[in-house]
Amino acid sequence: MKGETLYRLLADNLPRRAEKIALIDAGRQVSYAGLMTEVDRVASWLVGQGVAAGDRVIVHVRKGIDEVAAMFGALKIGAVVVNVNVQWTPTQLAYVAGDCRASAAILGTTGAAGALPAHLPLLIREGKTLPSGAALWDDLAETEVAEFASEPDSLAMIIYTSGSTGMPKGVMLSHRNIRIGALAVAEYLDLSEDDRLLSVLPYSFDAGLNQLTTMLLMGGTVVHQPVAMPSEVIRMAALHAVTGIAGVPPLWNQIARYLRDAPTPLPALRRITNTGGKIPPDILPLLPQVFPGARIFLMYGLTEAFRSTYLPPERFAAKMGAIGQAIPHAQVFVVKPGIGPAGPGEQGELVHAGPLVSMGYWERPELTAEKIRPCPELASLIGDTPVVWSGDLVRVDADGDLWFVGRMDDMIKTLGFRLSPTEVEDLVSKSGLVTDVVAWGVDDAELGQAVHIAASLGPDATEGAVMAHCRKTMAHYMVPRRIHPWPGAMPRTASGKLDRPAIITACKALL
Amino acid sequence: MPLTSAALIHYLHDDLNIDQEIAPETELFSSGMLDSVAMTNIIMYLEETAGIVVRPADVTLENFDTVKAIVDYAHAGA
Known about the structure:
The complex is a heterodimer. Chain A is of the alpha/beta class. In chain A, helix 13 (463-473) links the parallel strand 26 (448-457) and strand 27. Chain A is globular. Chain B is globular, with a radius of gyration of 11 Å. Helices cover 50% and strands 0% of the residues of chain B. Classes of the chains: A alpha/beta, B mainly alpha.
């Protein structure tokens, strides 16, 4: 053992698993030893550009073997990986490169190069005409580079999140955060060396990254699927006999509908996992039908604390939609502001303490101090240990399992009731008439706030039919006062969540 | 109204804000240019514009990876 670094998660597989297949792309696969060779080629280029430990390196490469090699090349020399989602625009990429003061960038294609500062050293995976001074991956030498022994508590990666307001901000994760995240998730998902996980979610997203790190920890295999099309995801899963698939609600929504229409046996599949929001209630019961042999894990995480809770699959049938309890190594509490911990049947804000708590936001100390700070309501339990304040309102049930209620800021106050937009959205979704729906409150002289919804109507659905469904299934105070029909699908953030502020702002602008 | 390649390319540029050049044979999904959110939008656009119902099982690279494939698929289903 040469220390507890993120790089060691990969390197400790050698020499024992040198010949084992580590990663599989659509037309290519690589062993652990082969991957290390690619890692060294990238690392030696970075050293040649003068990149040193602690410097930030942008990785903007499509999901695949090269992306992983780029990340671990930077990690080997102690540099900090800033993986920017390939779906992000050149403008967003340029913003991130400037904000993190990147020392080099590794790009999949030349497409985004023009947006970056001219002095930034570039390594390009594929391109016919290169910007002057840029290096081409295929020209890199196979030179072994010395490993830098990063401190476990030092910065390993910055994950930029496209916040609902303002420019993206970078969440700083230490080597320890990511390693303990891998240990915790591998434990509760019961992962082993013979697992093959299908990776669809980006490595620039905590849950996507965690799939890779758990497989490196266990010495398993990751199968890459960069095309998030349900037919392609399922084809790849069947072809490579994957044992696990991780997704976010919009992906499960499409996959469940696809498999209902085109059932496909996946005999090797052991588990599916969801994170990044609630799966609509009309889709949840479909999952056990279309994935008959798989255990279903509903999980919850916020980037600032990496991963937080999960619902054990044995409780899925009884508690469809719950987010369960703290994952191993994490301390998760629910607090009533100014009072103390919430008990069974009560609601409060989810807070997270322990070794998964991130290092805060890159070069934004005020924002960090606001988000990660001691919790006086828990002083008797954990003293002044800093916790991440999630801003998420959850309910605690009689068994101590947690249920997501809504964002604290989003609660609607109408007719003296405190109403969660999620509750309205779930009931509207159950009509089967809408594909996306968002609810919010609009100030109203008589009601306090009036419930409005924006809805993408499905084929043959009408506003009248949606309203009739609402009046039939909702308590009177929940029934929307107004429907804003949304043309087409709604905008989503890079992690696949509905971009609520953008949707609400657009509807308000039309009032 | 029958769907045309020109109309679909216009939609991709103007409504989905795709910056890159798109020709009828440009690979949209296998190249990584478009994601699952864009796919959902294209399906709804087809259902509205071409008046067809897109079955989930039809959403394959064969039918959806290029503008030409999408237009052919829409015509076959109309």
